[in-house]
Amino acid sequence: MIRALACVLALALGGAADAACRQALALGLDVSGSVDAREYRLQINGLAAALDNIAVRDALLSSPGVPVSVMVYEWSGPSDQAVIAPWAVIENAATLNGLIETLLQTTRRDVSPGTALGTAITLGAHYLDQQPGCWKRTLDISGDGMSNLGPRPRDVKDAIGARGITVNALVIGADATVADPSESNALPSYFRAEVITGPDAFVETALGFEDYEAAMTRKLLRELEVLAVSELVAD
């Protein structure tokens, strides 16, 4: 079904849009001081496993004529960001497998302890500006805490949304054993109010780093949904 809809979209819009890809997807991973070595590995391996999920693979590879471009970077303090997987055009299984292997081979570097969310989303938007030919540009930012250094996310997000970029969030919150529900709800509410922006922006929540793979899988499937074609297809 995903493949058929992607083909319909490509045929319907291909002549009107001179696009190199149907979507550019930048993934920003939180590696600040609140993320320990075990949690770092759960996050990196969780993203790799989510990309290798059969439904996510099908969504990524559904229309190689108008592929998805993907890159991954890490963020922490205001001056402590790093690309761990540069832009890759996911045209075939080999390219996707290469991206997954790059993630699995990534090791943690020394980072500053700060949480500079405003800087992180500004940088992600800069990376997405490198993909101007894509029909849709999406920043997928993961985080386990509120911003405490650099510009506030609220002060930069509107300008990013105005450039046609959607910023979604994967909040790594308290785990299911937390007795106070407000502790689990506060961080998603913060990201919803202060971070996400753009068309159809949303927040996905992981109940601790152990839940990261499942949450990322849900998030990727939602982000990779084929662009709306209901108006292009007769009832």
UniProtKB/TrEMBL annotation:
InterPro entries given in the database record: DUF1194, VWF_A, vWFA_dom_sf
Gene3D superfamilies: von Willebrand factor, type A domain
Keywords, sorted A to Z: Signal
UniProt signal peptide: 1-19
Source organism superkingdom: Bacteria
Residue span(s) of domain VWFA: 24-224
Alphabetical list of Pfam families matching this protein: DUF1194
Record SUPFAM superfamilies: vWA-like
Annotated protein name in UniProt: VWFA domain-containing protein
Species annotation: Sulfitobacter marinus
